[in-house]
Automatic annotation (TrEMBL):
Record domain EAL: where: 24-275
Native source organism of the sequence: Actinoplanes philippinensis
Coiled-coil region: none
Protein name: Diguanylate cyclase (GGDEF) domain-containing protein
Portion of the full-length sequence here: 454 to 733 of 733
Length: 280
């Protein structure tokens, strides 16, 4: 009987594995189609300068509408990475975002920041592809930041691609800082310009903030300053968190408190309302 039950469990397991695999295959097929059918597009979230309270840049975030529904990036990006589709999707996303941001940069001096995956960094033609997109869209290299998560950055630190991007004036940001396995001793060796403090450090600030949480954030900001990195706090959701980060001298902030990711038309409206200022 025990053997039979085990067999049934195995059958159920196989079945759910098969269901998962076919769902993954369906997603991959949909993503391949999204490259050309317009269902892939970008949302933009303001990056705000704490000194002035106005936006100075935007982070481009990929969106995919499948049928009537938005699929979260947390679901489709990993599948795009596993299937290698992230290369083509990432290039498409970068082109869409640069084309959009070229106007915003011209009119309001704002910068664009775009997320990049490990697969893209491993492509020896990546720098050339980025430069071609900049040339085609008219966005200056100095107005572009590429965001790379901490663990990927450590893997890629010894590849020439980061150096060649930076040599052309493109800045590199460490995304989700504090969630990877980097040793602090490594930070000075990483070819980066901007440090984005992970949401988990910001979200923990209660009202009133606990002293140990405040010292932790202060320490990360001090670390960034000591390494000449521009700090950005991610995931600022409350007025209390916003005030705290301003008091701690965090130069740039991002989060629902300032604005959720929105479509390009909504950013146009914000710009008409003069919510943006020239980039620092
Ligand atoms: P990320 O780059 O760290 O982006 C920040 C995420 O936090 C975004 O989620 C954003 O919508 C969300 N967020 C912003 N402010 C707040 C806040 O105040 N509270 C909370 N709870 N969340 C906030 P999203 O758009 O779902 O993207 C998730 C992740 O997917 C991104 O994390 C990034 O790692 C990846 N991703 C998104 N677009 C792209 C892309 O074009 N290429 C690549 N390779 N990855 C992307
Ligand atoms: Mg990011
Ligand atoms: Mg992040
Ligand atoms: Mg991330």
């Amino acid at each position: 009987a025990a053997k039979q039950a085990g067999g049934a469990r195995t059958a159920r397991f196989d079945e759910s594995l098969r269901a998962e695999q076919s769902e993954r295959a369906r997603t991959a097929a949909g993503l391949r189609q999204a490259l050309t059918d317009g269902s892939l597009f970008m949302h933009y979230q303001p990056v705000v300068d704490t000194a002035s309270g106005r936006a100075t840049g935007v982070e481009a975030l990929m969106r995919w509408r499948r049928g009537g529904e938005l699929v979260p990036p947390g679901v489709f990006i990993p599948i795009a990475e596993q299937t290698g589709l992230i290369g083509a999707l990432g290039t498409r996303a970068l082109r869409l975002a640069c084309a959009q941001a070229a106007t915003w940069h011209r009119e309001h001096g704002l910068y664009l920041t775009v997320n990049v995956s490990t697969h893209q960094l491993r492509d020896p033609g990546f720098t050339a592809a980025v430069l071609e997109i900049l040339a085609d869209t008219g966005l200056p290299a100095a107005a572009l930041v590429l965001e790379i998560t901490e663990s990927v950055l450590i893997d890629a630190a010894d590849t020439p691609v980061l150096g060649s991007l930076r040599a052309h004036g493109i800045r590199i940001a460490i995304d989700d800082f504090g969630t990877g396995y980097s040793s602090l001793a490594y930070l000075h060796a990483l070819p980066v310009d901007i440090l984005k403090i992970d949401q988990s450090f910001i979200r923990r600030h209660e009202d009133p903030p606990r002293p140990q949480d405040v010292s932790l954030t202060r320490a990360i900001l001090e670390l960034a300053r000591s390494q000449d990195l521009l700090a950005v706090a991610e995931g600022v959701e409350t007025a209390g968190q916003a005030e705290l980060l301003r008091d701690l001298g965090c130069p740039l902030v991002q989060g629902y408190h300032y604005g959720r990711p929105v479509d390009a038309a909504a950013i146009d409206t914000l710009m008409r309302e003069d919510a943006f200022q020239p980039a620092a």
